[in-house]
Design goal:
This protein has helices at about 5-15, 20-40, 50-70, 75-90, 100-115, 125-135, 140-154. It is mainly α.
Length: about 150
């Protein structure tokens, strides 16, 4: 078992013992998503810590989107629970980049892409190829794409 997955499992046991319903249900669902990912495909395999981190990030994103949907539907109590679950999952992810840090990384990538001959909005793909490995797991793709578009536009 990978270290991140075993940490999730240990935290689940602690949450069950402490009768922390929110934490235990969130961790159960996350571990189920990890298990589902492990058995998907042609052969079962054990996920690496990076892959487990991607599953956790995907689950946290689902919680944020569900919270927004519940908020728009007038179900504030359910939206609050989804937000709490998202915050709990964020604790297992690396620290997210601030807007200034992300802008600096993207600006360097834009300069690098322009040095390679890519310019204007068509350079988006080239810039994203440079930026994605640098920000992997520390910034959502939509947020990165928005900064890239803004800096390429001028």
């Amino acid at each position: 078992m990978t270290t991140l997955k075993s940490k999730l499992h240990d935290d689940l046991i602690d949450a069950i013992r402490a009768r922390d319903e929110l934490r235990s249900s969130t961790l159960r669902l996350t571990l189920a998503a990890i298990s589902k990912e492990e058995v998907s495909g042609k052969t079962a395999r054990e996920l690496s810590d990076d892959e487990v981190q991607k599953v956790i990030a995907r689950e946290a994103k689902k919680r944020r989107e569900a919270a927004d949907a519940f908020e728009q539907g007038g179900r504030a109590e359910q939206a609050e629970r989804e937000r709490a679950e998202g915050v709990l999952l964020d604790g297992y992810l690396p620290q997210q980049l601030s807007d200034d840090e992300l802008t600096a990384i993207v600006a360097d990538a834009v300069a690098e892409a322009k040095a390679g001959g890519a310019e204007g909005p068509r350079a988006m793909g080239a810039v994203m190829k440079i930026v994605n490995p640098k920000v992997a797991g520390r910034a959502e793709g939509g947020r990165v794409a928005a900064v890239v578009k803004r800096l390429l536009a001028g």
